[in-house]
Amino acid sequence: MLIALCCLLSALVLYIQALKNAMAAKRWACAGLLLGPVVVPLFFSQKRLRLMRAMGRGNVFWQPH
After folding, report:
1. What is the DSSP string of 26-63?
2. What is the DSSP letter of 1?
3. Are the C-beta atoms of 50 and 33 separated by less than 8 Å?
4. Quick check: 30 pLDDT over 90?
5. Dist. CA 11–CA 7, nearest whole Å
């Protein structure tokens, strides 16, 4: 029960974050539903890769932490 709830919650969070970042929302929601929170680091690395491709490697992007 707890694992199913965790997978459902991670699917919802990934779906919302993918929509906010113009990524394939349904794909990330399905991945979150099937694999749970294991997909979150992959999501953030894919998000960063897409950002670097859009901006180019010569530009500097400062992110507040």
Report:
1. HHHHHHHHHHGGGGHHHHHHHHHHHHHHHH-TTS----
2. -
3. no
4. yes
5. 6
* pLDDT, mean of residues 8-23: 93
Could you give the CA distance from residue 57 to residue 30 in angstroms, rounded to a whole number? 31
Residue 43 CB coordination number (10 Å): 19
Q: 48 phi and psi, to 5 degrees?
A: -65, -40
For 37-43, what is the mean pLDDT? Answer: 93
Q: What value does the mean pLDDT take over residues 38-48?
A: 93
How far is it, in rounded angstroms, from Cα 14 to Cα 1? 20
Reported pTM: 0.79
